[in-house]
Amino acid sequence: MHFIIGVDIITNRIKYILLILLIFSCAGIHKKERPKENRRSEISIMTQHWNTGIDSLNLYMYMALPLNYFVFKKNIDHFSSEVTFTLVISDKEQNTQIYRESWQEEIARPYYEDTRDPDNYYKTEKNISLLSGTYNLFLNIQDEDSRKNWKIVKEIKLERIRYLSPSLLFIKEKNGQLNQMDFIIQKTDTIWLRTQVNLPDSSDQDIEYIIIYNESIIDSGEIEISHVGIQNLYHLPIPFTQHKRGRYEIELSFLEDKQTTSFSYGYKTKHYWTDDVKEVVGVMRYILLYSEYKKLIN
């Protein structure tokens, strides 16, 4: 009897050792084996606009720069990099330059390892006052140490907001701070959309939303506007209960206006072959007894 129990213990240990080896062997798969479109280590430029006066609009630019693009120099207690931005905005129809600005920003990090991690970004923003119209945006980003530069060209169309402006995605950190994102790699039960909502006096103050995944509606609801936002800007809380890797869309509707925001969930640049718990549990069926595997999936 003691011999049989000992064999069971050894068998279970071997089983779990094999499981660990299997998971870590999968974790060793390099990112280059994934489809190219899943790579997130790239410069991200996102824009949003809203009404600021009778004629003027505010163009908001959000820039996320991978730290491993830049050369960092060692200082006494940190590592730093100098980056120069040059922004040119031209009227598309008349092909005339209407805005130009150059400025420098210093990126500082306490540890050198942080500067090489492809998941770490330097995030900065810019606000510019413009009139309605279609514009060509040119942005040059230059590393002052290596003299390497990256160019982004983008066409933007600015229109007066009637009821609902384009939205940008935010998530709330543990300290309560809202941080802007264009993809999500951490589990969260709520995402926030910043948008300008212009409320007519006699209108219902509920914003309708739907969440779309794989071309199917997976959730819907309403959000009540209960306070006055600065410049009528609001961070609208959207419940996010499904955490499957892939591309999502959130459509907001208010009166005659509709705005759609899309984002990716679960795309990582390193670490493990998957961040889907169901996929991780799935590999266990090869080494666990069916009764044990059934407990995991239930």
How would you describe what is shown here?
- It is a single chain.
- The chain has 298 residues and is α+β, with helices and mostly antiparallel strands.
- The protein has three domains: 52 residues; 119 residues, Immunoglobulins (Immunoglobulin-like), CATH 2.60.40; 111 residues, Macroglobulin (MG2) domain (Immunoglobulin-like).
- The chain contains four helices and 17 strands.
- The protein is flat, with a radius of gyration of 24 Å.
- The two termini are 32 Å apart.
Largest sheet: 5 strands, antiparallel
Estimate percent helicity. 10-25%
* Number of DSSP strand runs: 17
N-to-C SSE string, H for helix and E for strand: HEEEEEHEEEEEEEEEEEEHH
Detail the poorly predicted runs. 1-7, 27-40, 269-273
Distance between the termini: 32 Å
Assembly form of the protein? single chain
Q: Figure out the total of helices.
A: 4
Structural class: alpha+beta
Shape: flat
CATH fold topology of the largest domain: Immunoglobulin-like
Q: In CATH, what is the class of the largest domain?
A: Mainly Beta
CATH architecture of the largest domain: Sandwich
Total domains: 3
pLDDT averaged residue by residue: 82
Question: Strand share of the residues?
Answer: over 45%
CATH superfamily of the largest domain: Immunoglobulins
How large is the radius of gyration?
24 Å
